[in-house]
Amino acid sequence: MMACFSQNFARFKQSRKGAAAIEFAFMFPMVLATFCAIMFFGAYLFNANRLDNTLRDAGHSVMLLQKPTLAEVRTAANLVFDSISLPGEVSAVTIETRADGTRAAVLSLTMTMAGKTAFLDTDTFTHTASMRAPLFDR
Asked: What is the pLDDT of residue 70?
């Protein structure tokens, strides 16, 4: 009986059948997690780039206004932001006057990627972009 067991064990030890399946079973979760992380990060970068481009467009729209008030600047920024359908908001709009008397609009846009993921232990992931747009009193 012992001889039979030792022969079968020796044969099993030398056999390579199924080794690829076991290696695949060990590696597949790590490869899948890496792939999902790359996809999530790519989606974040894509949307962050869209937010930055929208901020630039909003700043350009604000610069074209003639003697704008704070409400007009806020309305122009909201119109541009609403046109891209990103989850988020125009978080802050202010008009500042510099020491030399020139005025500038300070715009801040915030994008929120909501939903719990396996990679981030948070419910929301935000990206905020800000810029100063000079205002020309024509």
From this structure: 87
pLDDT in tens, 98-119: 888 888 888 888 877 765 555 5
For 86, phi then psi, to 5°, come to: -95, 145
Rounded-to-integer distance, Cα 12 and Cα 112, Å: 55
Q: What is the DSSP letter of 69?
A: -
Task: Tell me the whole-structure pTM to 2 decimals.
Answer: 0.69
Distance CA 60, CA 68 (A): 13
Domain ranges of the chain: 20-135
Here the tokens at position 105 are 């609009």
SS3 content of the chain, % helix, strand, coil (to 5): 50, 25, 25
Burial class, 107, CB count within 10 angstroms (exposed 0-12 / middle 13-18 / buried 19+): buried
- Residue 60, token pair as written in the block: 């350009």
**Is 55 within 8 Å of 106 (Cβ atoms)?**
no
